[in-house]
Amino acid sequence: MLWKATVLLGSVEAPLGFAYCVFPENSKEDFFLFPTGEQVLCEASTVLKYVQEDSSQHGVYGRLVCTDFKIAFLGDDESALDNDETQFKNKVIGENDITLHCVDQIYGVFDEKKKTLFGQLKKYPEKLIIHCKDLRVFQFCLRYTKEEEVKRIVSGIIHHTQAPKLLKRLFLFSYATAAQNNTVTDPKNHTVMFDTLKDWCWELERTKGNMKYKAVSVNEGYEVCERLPAYFVVPTPLPEENVQRFQGHGIPIWCWSCHNGSALLKMSALPKEQDDGILQIQKGFLDRIYKTIHRPPYEIVKTEDLSSNFLSLQEIQTAYSKFKQLFLIDNSTEFWDTDIKWFSLLESSSWLDIIRRCLKKAIEITECMEAQNMNVLLLEENASDLCCLISSLVQLMMDPHCRTRIGFQSLIQKEWVMGGHCFLDRCNHLRQNDKEEVPVFLLFLDCVWQLVHQHPPAFEFTETYLTVLSDSLYIPIFSTFFFNSPHQKDTNVGREGHETQSKPLNLLTVWDWSVQFEPKAQTLLKNPLYVEKPKLDKGQRKGMRFKHQRQLSLPLTQSKSSPKRGFFREETDHLIKNLLGKRISKLINSSDELQDNFREFYDSWHSKPTDYHGLLLPHIEGPEIKVWAQRYLRWIPEAQILGGGQVATMSKLLEMMEEVQSLQEKIDEKHHSQQEAPQAEAPCLLRNSARLSSLFPFALLQRHSSKPVLPTSGWKALGDEDDLAKQEDEFMDLGDV
Q1: CA distances in angstroms from 416 to 107, 192, 533, listed in the order given
Q2: Residues 498, 221: contact at Cβ < 8 Å?
Q3: Cα separations (Å) of 112 from 71, 108, 125, 672?
Q4: What biological process terms from GO does the record include (predicted)?
C-alpha cells in the first residue's frame, strides 16, 4: 500500500521552498526535510546501505524511500550518515539522495549474480545496486527487509525511474505549483537570459556587432518557428520575410562578433525534398541568402558543415557509454581488477579523442576569424547540438567576458537554452527514447574543464563550479535543463496562449546558486587565482587598443587574397548541397592550406606569453587532454590523493585570502591599537584543511583501501588480502627511511 506524507507548509526553520514531511506509519514519528510539493510513493525499512568495501558487508541500517522527486536513504543512526566533515553540502540533494532523473541503471543481485532490472519482476533481488548519472554507486541489502516491502520498493523504483513520462508529470511542475508564492530570485544574479529583445541588443552592442547585424522580433509568439527563440539576430541586409519562408531553416543566425569585424553564424538545413521543382526553389533561395552574407572582398564567409564533416551524435553516445563504465565501480575488487587495464580501456573509449577533436575544430574556426578575418558559418541539420558546442567553445577562447561566471552563464543561456538544444531529449528526462540520449552538453563542460585546467587564472569560476553545474542537469526543480526549446517552456508554464487564466508558473533557474549552496559553500565556486582585468584611468587608456595584438601580428599571408580556382563558388555549392541534404566528398576544411594555417597559428600563439584577457587556446596534444578527475573520480575512495589534489591546493589559497582580508580589516580599524583583537576564525569550509584529499570538497578523508602490491586481475592468487596489505605497509615503511 502506498503511504502518504503530510506536507506541513510554513514549518518553522524550513528553508524557503522546503517543508517537513511527517511519516505517519513510522513508530518514531520522525520529521524529514523535503522540497515543497514532494510526495512519498513507497518505502522499505530495515535496509542495509553498504559502504564501498569488499567482503566486510559493513553498512548502516535505515529506510529506503522513493518519492516523486528522489530516492532517499534515511539512516536509523543519523550520526553515522550525517558527517559534519562533509561541509560542501547541497541544500536540495543530500549525500544519500538520488533524484529520479539521475538514475542511470538498476541492478539486482540474485544468488551472487548481478542482473539488470527492468519491467515487471517475477523474482526480487536480495541486493539492489543503483548506478547514477553523476557516477555515484549505491548498494542496498534487502535480506532483512520484509518481503512485501521489498516488492514494493523495488517495483516502485524501477517504475518511477524507467517508465516513460509525460512532461507535465515531471516534479518540476509539482514543485513550481507548490512553491508558487514562495519563490524568490537572487538579486545578485545578473545572468543575461536572452528572453527579451533588449538582451540581444545589449549583446550586439557589447560585441560591436550592431553595425552589420540586427535583432528581430519576427518570431514573437513563435508564429514562424517553434524551434527558434522569440528574438534572435540576423544580418542587416536580410529581409525579415525570408525568415518566414522555410520556417527559419536556411537562415544565417548570428552568434557572436569578433573585435576585427568577423562574425560567427549558424544555420539549420532545409527540409529534404525529392521534387526537383522544390529543390530548384530551395537552391535559388539559398543562393540569394548566401549573397547577402558573402560579398568579397569585404565580407568573406567560410562554411563549416558539422553534420557531415565532424563528429556524429552516435560517436559521442558510444564513446561516453564506454567511458563512464571506468568510473561506475561497485567495490574495491572491481577497481583493482580493472586498474592494470586502465590506459587501454581509456583509449578504447575514444572520449578524450572526441574532446581533442572538438577543441581542434574550435581552434580552426578561431584561426579563420582571428587571423584571416573571415566570417564562419556553422551548418547542422537543426543547428542545436554541435553548433551549440562549437560556437560556445569559440566564444570562450576569443571573448574574455565569457570566462567570467556571469558571462559563462549568459553564454549557456544564449547558445544552449535559447539556441534550442534539446535538453529534455538529450538527457532523456522523460525516458521515452534512449537513442536520443547524447551527452552533448556534458561534452562541452568537459572541453571547458580542459581550458580551465590548462589556464586557471583566465577563468573566474572553478572546476567545482563546472562539476556542480553538471550535477544540476538532473535536479528537476530548475527549468534551465528540462526543456527542448523556449517555445516548449513558455507553452507549458502558461506564458503562451489565452486559454489559461491562471498565473504563469515562475520556474527557478539553475543560476541562482543560493538555492543549492550556502554563501560559504559558494566561495568554492569562485576562482581565487582569477586575474581580473585591470581598471585604467583616462590617461592610461590613450593609445591603447584592447585587441589580441599578439595574434594580429602573426605572419599569416593571403588573409585577404583574391579567390583562386573558383574557391568561393565551390563554397557556395558546398553550402547549398549540404543544406539540401546532399554530401560531397571533397571538403574545404580538410585542405592542406587550412592545416598549414592552423599549425602556424597554433604554434605561434603557444610560443608567446599568455594574455589571460585576450585570445586563449588550449594545448591539444595527446597528453594534454586529461580526465576530468574531480567529476569522474570523486566517489571512488581508492582514487583519492591523501592531503593533496588541485582542489585541496585551492582551499589553502582561499584560507590564506581569508586571513589576509581579516588582517586588512583589522589594520583599517581605528582606535583599536591598544586592545588586542580576537583572532579571526577560519571559514567553516576550510577547517581541518590538513585532512583534505583530492575528493574535496565532495568528501574529506575516506577510508584507506587495501590495494594489492601487484594490481592485476589475478592478484588474489598471490595471497590473502591482509597479507598483501601488510606487505604494502612494509614497503611504505622502507620508503620513508
Answers
A1: 34, 13, 27
A2: no
A3: 24, 9, 10, 70
A4: phosphatidylinositol dephosphorylation
Radius of gyration of the chain (CA): 28
Give buried/exposed letters for 558-578 (b at 16+ CB in 10 A, else e).
eeeeeeeeeebeebbebbbbb
Helices marked H in 163-206 — which ranges?
171-178, 197-206
Characterize the bridge pairing of strands 375-380 and 263-268: parallel
Burial of 223 (0-12, 13-18, 19+ CB in 10 A): exposed
In sequence order, which residues have a C-beta less than 8 Å from that of residue 106 and are 6 or more positions away?
Answer: 116, 117, 118, 128, 129, 130, 131, 157, 158, 161, 162
Residue 213: C-alpha distances to residues 146, 200, 216, 293, 665 (Å): 67, 11, 10, 10, 49
Kindly report whether the peptide bond that precedes residue 297 is cis, defined as omega within 30 degrees of 0. Answer: yes
| CA distances from residue 372 to 298, 364, 453, 568 in whole angstroms, order as listed | 12, 11, 29, 15
Asked if residue 597 lies in contact with residue 307, where contact means CB atoms within 8 angstroms, the answer is no
User: Element (H or E) spanning 449, and its range?
Assistant: helix 440-454
33, 14 in Cβ contact below 8 A?
Answer: yes
Cell triple for 682: 577560519
Alpha-helical regions (H) of 135-181: 147-162, 171-178
Query: Helix, strand, coil: what percent of the chain each, to 5?
Result: 40, 15, 45
Residue-wise over 393-410: b if at least 16 C-beta within 10 A, else e?
bbbbbbbbbbbbbbbbbb
Residue 213 in contact with residue 189, Cβ under 8 Å?
no
Give residue-wise pLDDT tens across range 188-222: 679 999 999 999 999 999 999 999 999 999 999 99
Global pTM value: 0.84
- Alpha carbon distances (Å) from 46 to 67, 99, 605: 18, 22, 62
Distance CA 155, CA 91 (A): 28
Per DSSP, the three-state class of 440 is: helix
Q: What is the pLDDT of residues 291-339, one digit of tens each?
A: 888 888 888 999 999 998 899 999 999 999 999 999 999 988 888 888 8
The pLDDT value recorded for residue 678 is 47
How many CB atoms sit inside 10 A of residue 48's CB?
Answer: 19
CA 595 from chain centre, in angstroms, equals 31
The answer to whether 85 touches 95, Cβ cutoff 8 Å, is: no
Question: Residue 655: pLDDT band by 50, 70, 90 thresholds?
Answer: confident
The residue with greater pLDDT, 272 or 389, is: 389
CA distance 98 to 424: 19
First to last CA, the chain: 64
Burial class for 641, CB neighbours closer than 10 Å (0-12, 13-18, 19+): middle
Q: Are 252 and 387 in contact (CB under 8 A)?
A: no
Between CA 325 and CA 240 the distance in angstroms is: 49
